[in-house]
Amino acid sequence: MGTDPEEGAALAIGLLQSLAGMNARVAITTHYNPVKLFALGEARCVLAAVDFDVDTLTPRYRLSYHSLGRSLALPIARRLGLPEAVLSAARAAQSTSRAHWGRRSSGWRRRAAASRSSSRR
């Protein structure tokens, strides 16, 4: 018994839409990709990611605005010494939708970085 992650994400999106209808200001955090995709399509959403140093495995305690953080589970697992066979199996187990999310968020990251660099000029 429990909540399916897709159902939980759908509930979160419904709640955000309801709160937006009330002109509420909210701050949310999520690991749910559907919620992130929802935020990408909403002009009223400001995205941010917590900066993390993969080399030292420590947070940098900074928010990077207009940024989507990427999942670091596999790089961290590699750094912590998990066997390559386990990492390979994990990569193979990632779903097609996860791969789609990675491609989509990579494109968004490139556009956001270009936008930030052009606004600094």
Q: How many individual helices?
A: 5
Taken together, the total number of domains comes to 1
Largest sheet: 2 strands, antiparallel
String of helices and strands: HHEEHHH
| Overall pLDDT | 84
Fraction of residues in H or I helices: 40-55%
Derived structural class: mainly alpha
Could you characterize the architecture of this molecule?
This protein is mostly helical. The protein has one domain (5-119). It is 55% helix and 12% strand. It has 5 helices and 2 strands; from the N terminus they run H-H-E-E-H-H-H. The chain has helices spanning 5-21, 33-40, 73-79, 84-93, 96-119, and strands at 48-53, 58-65. It has a two-stranded antiparallel sheet. The protein is globular.
